[in-house]
Amino acid sequence: MCELNVFSLLCAVSTLNVVWAEFRFASYYGSHMVLQKAPERAVLWGYGPNENKITVILVGQQQNQEQAVYVQNGTWRVTLDPVKAGGPYNVTAVQQGVTGASVTLTDVLFGDVWLCGGQSNMAFLISQVFNASAEKAQATKYPDVRIFMAALELSQEELIDLRVVQMPWSVPSAELVGHFSAVCWLFGRYLYKTLGYPVGLVESCWGGTPVEAWSSPQALQKCGLERREEDDSSYLYISPYDTEPAPKRNNSVLWNAMIHPFLNMTIKGAIWYQGEDNTAYHLDKYACAFPAMIDDWRAAFHEGSGGQTAVDFPFGFAQLCTHSRTGKDEGFPELRWHQSADYGFTPNPRMKNTFMAVTLDLPDYKSPWGSIHPRDKQDVAYRLTLGARAVAYGEKGVSFQGPFPAKFLVGGDSINITYTQAVSVTPSKSVFEICCTQEKKPCSSNSTWLPAPIMQWGQRYVQVSIATCGKMVSGLRYAWRDWPCKFKSCPVYSADRELPAPPFLL
């Protein structure tokens, strides 16, 4: 027998699969799960002997329903009628016939299901954050925020189901939450406080992985990245954030094993924290590859769920934080820019129904897990939650974007930058930079960039000096470095100093 705790959950799941080798639910359904609430319809599926009739019964105080379906090609599938948020329910699948076998899932809730993906900063655990003990102690106060984790697996082919489940659907406890994604858990917890109904969190992430590994071949083809890395000399790079090239970085292997199996599930949306690996790998392609991945996920989940997951489901992501205080490499600022498809903000015309949490003001030089893994995941999750409330749920009056330039006016030896909203400003001699050229032409990282000190500011503007140029000013940028400021001390914030201005390049 397997004792059911965080260290033997995998054993428990493996045992379940043996017992129901011929008739069972798919791997990511289980007791304590959250299914997507109305108006969407939740999809349930599993395995059974061909041509057998399967009846799925939903029983609860709020609603009962029953649906029958036949097994085809070894699988069965039903789409429930819409169910309002709440619970608990029991879901029973009954195999009609001589055996009369049945499987019952208990304590099932209906709410919003969010998928959490990315690399190591999404995988970063609650037990690793600032105030970890206090965060874990709060877990039992949120029994309606349920958690699930896919195991680390890769595949050369698209899988219809997860090979292994790391953590089956669970009611949160201090121990379980301590081994769960910090950003994912905190996002769900903060969101629950606003929604007041169940939230299901599905973690599927792996540290040290590029966006190409999480993208389908179709998405990669749109950006000229369809070749497999073993046929690409650039694959031989050694990531500065991991030990060596590894199979987990190959094209589509994590899409195949850790995303594609979920396509039948109805979800509300997704959040994402990834990009560090791409600062040194196909950096110039990220502005194409990341939006293409989002588009492809949306289309695939919509089709896989039979149209129940929205074709434009909300997608939130964390803009990269920091890594090196003294490094001159521009991989991080360029990747931040490419995360927004080179717009600098979201939503934008290329990335509709998205939201971005700016995190460049949350560095952590003393992090025991390296400065690339800052411990303040509370602010990351909070800023993502603001975006979800505004974009995914249409909540009015929720500010989720920091100030962004709306207009530039060059006059004399200064540039006046007008922002989209009121700003709070502190002096800086170097966070703004200008590109100086002999003639008007586009600027790049190899161009001559000089500091443009802040001269003065007002309610919605910042004025910077260009007196040091002496030539033509062909570009302006803000916070364009790996580590632009100290903790929560960047020069430009929203008027309430809650949200930092994102970096920009003009």
Care to give the gist of this entry?
One of its GO terms (biological process) is carbohydrate metabolic process. This protein has 506 residues and is α+β, with helices and mostly antiparallel strands. The protein has ten helices and 24 strands.
Write the layout of secondary structure elements.
Blueprint: H1 9-19, E1 24-25, E2 34-36, E3 43-47, E4 53-60, E5 65-70, E6 75-79, E7 86-95, E8 102-118, H2 120-123, H3 132-137, E9 145-150, E10 165-170, H4 174-178, H5 182-195, E11 199-205, H6 217-221, H7 253-259, E12 269-273, H8 286-304, E13 315-318, H9 331-339, E14 354-357, H10 377-392, E15 405-411, E16 414-419, E17 423-425, E18 432-437, E19 449-451, E20 454-457, E21 461-465, E22 472-478, E23 492-494, E24 504-505
Parallel strand pairs: 2-8, 8-11, 8-12, 9-11, 12-13, 13-14
Antiparallel strand pairs: 1-3, 3-6, 4-5, 4-7, 7-8, 9-10, 15-16, 16-21, 17-23, 18-19, 18-22, 20-21, 22-24
Helix pairs in contact: 5-10, 8-9
Keywords: Hydrolase, Signal
GO molecular function, one term: sialate O-acetylesterase activity
Domain Sialate O-acetylesterase: 112-302
> Which ranges are low-confidence, i.e. pLDDT below 50, for 5 or more consecutive residues?
1-21, 231-237
Work out the helix count. 10
What is the structural class?
Answer: alpha+beta
Helix content: 10-25%
Give me the Rg, rounded: 24 Å
What is the molecular shape? elongated
- Give the termini distance in whole angstroms: 63 Å
Beta-strand fraction estimate: 25-35%
Largest sheet: 11 strands, mixed
- Mean pLDDT equals 92
Assembly state of the chains shown: single chain
